[in-house]
Amino acid sequence: MATRTFGWIQNPSSTDTLKDILGLFVQGSKFHTYMTEERLPLLASAGLFQTPNLYLEFQKILRANKPIAYNVLKGKGAGGGSRKNAKCSGLAQAAVTGQQCQTYTIDNKIVKIKKPYTDDWTADGFIRWAVSLGFLNYNYSDDTCSITLLGIDFVNAENTKEKNDILGRAFLSYPPVCRVMGLLCKYQHMTKFEIGAKLGFTDEAGFTSFPQNIWVQAYEEATDANEKKKLRSDTEGSSDKYARMICNWLESIGWVSKKPKTVKETFGSKTYECEITSAFEITAMGIINYRKAIGMSKSPRIPKIVYREMLASRASDANYLRMRRTLIIEFLSKHKAKTIEEIVSFLATKGIQEKATTIRDDMTGLINIGLDIENEGDTYKLRDIITKLRFYEENITKETTDAIVVKDRARVRLHNINHKYLTLIDYAFSGKNNCTEFEIYTIDLLVNELAFNGIHLGGTRKPDGIFDYNQQGIIIDNKAYSKGFTITRSMADEMVRYVQENNDRNPERNKTQWWLNFGDNVNHFNFVFISSMFKSEVKHMLNNIKQSTGVDGCVLTAENLLYFADAIKGGTVKRTDFINLFGKNDELVYPYN
């Protein structure tokens, strides 16, 4: 069975292009005719097909009026070459006109036109969008797509009102849209960061939200115009991007308006104020239509389209999580109130053994993806009618990787801190893919959850972060390693450099002067390496760093950092006692002596 990723859409935004791709399935439509009579002949004449036979193959498929194979729509990648230079290999690729003009030779004439096709990644995004909104049906058994009645209506829409009415119906069937609209109804004016923090399964990788106060602090303290530009255009979590894209869709039909928001954020001991342009309000029309979606008007409740792929994203055990959450929805689909213990017992009858804490986090996540679930205490009732969710014929065995084992162990022990910080374990074991997220969430935990002073630094010639309390300051080096971390000589030398720069505080040595971010009263320093787990003897390398700098340090796993954080938040460990441990020259383990 092919692996597809329906459910979470980040990049497509043009509903006109979406309509064009749907037109591939509707014979006699304006775009279908354009494809057969103009676009495909153009691509053939310019020699832009990956293989010459694709022209006749695509013409035959468009005239067949049958479901179209997903791979035929999406096409192939660049095959190791540049995506920019790859030739057209998919029908949906051919349906999308590029933004940049290029020069081609057509019928022995040189012409400059917009690129008459796109890449497979962009095409795939539009196909997944069409499936997730219910414009296309996806058949798991043969990996094909066919158009729905709503999709045909959208293709045949003749004016803006018709088009927007149909888009509105489709949007309301997509749970994340309802989640975003519900949040805007409740909180009125929100930035993408504020929405993203409440969207999706926030306790696992794939649903990251950049902490707003960390972003504001970084933006306000940035002195370089290019750095500020990068923060505005490129710095956001995956959930923040989902939120922004959804709001842009809703803005296009008048249900949401984009309105900059001035925010005041406290980070550590400082307060910052700035304007965030990516902020949104729901309109009166949006409120009216949101009420339709949740059955608060005379109109019937709109069923929600939930493909199983929506139920997990980049978690290492995503397939198992999707199966477990599919079973939970199946159990709740009778629309009767169920307790957490009843859900746990039901899962046990299906061969799935999970703790109540895990299922409670699942329920929070299902609410956060946009399902209308009534929650009173430990009791949950699903109000939505769910469509497209394909139940599993057999169980998927839960993986037992180090990251999964550690995360499951930690989840049941954390009673005081937000479980979103469990993603620290995902990031610690992720390797180089999520280094920045690991750094940011570490500072987020220390500052926003535990009230230390601190800052994310990162980048060249700076440690990943620092934090302090009273007179004590800590230099942080995050190390994301899937198989565990060993302090090598080069990594020890890097920490030696940071510690010596802080000792000397000479701007000639490092013009960034990152050490100035410590509080003025901080005069005692230590350092820490934070990672997934540690291999070999760490004491020797820690002592080497001490001998070179005169400063003591330690190592700390993400798991034990969470345990200490939970104890601090619960009042059983004092912040002073915690920060005093960083001069131990050994690994910190909770509980400690």
Automatic annotation (TrEMBL):
Gene Ontology terms describing biological process: DNA restriction-modification system
Domain of life of the source: Bacteria
InterPro entries for the chain: FokI_cleavage_dom, FokI_D1, FokI_D2, FokI_D3, FokI_dom_1_2, Restrct_endonuc-II-like, WH-like_DNA-bd_sf, WH_DNA-bd_sf
Domain FokI recognition intervals: 4-157, 165-295
GO molecular function: DNA binding; type II site-specific deoxyribonuclease activity
Range of residues in the leader sequence: none
Domain FokI D3, residue spans: 311-377
Protein name (database record): Restriction endonuclease
Keyword Hydrolase: yes
Cited SUPFAM superfamilies: Restriction endonuclease-like, Winged helix' DNA-binding domain
Gene3D superfamilies named in the record: 3.40.91.30, Foki Restriction Endonuclease, Chain A, domain 1, Winged helix-like DNA-binding domain superfamily/Winged helix DNA-binding domain
One Pfam family linked to the record: FokI_dom_2
Entry keywords, A to Z: Endonuclease, Hydrolase, Nuclease
CDD domains referenced in this protein's UniProt entry, alphabetically: FokI_N, FokI_nuclease-like
Native organism: Segatella copri
All copies of domain FokI cleavage, residue ranges: 407-566
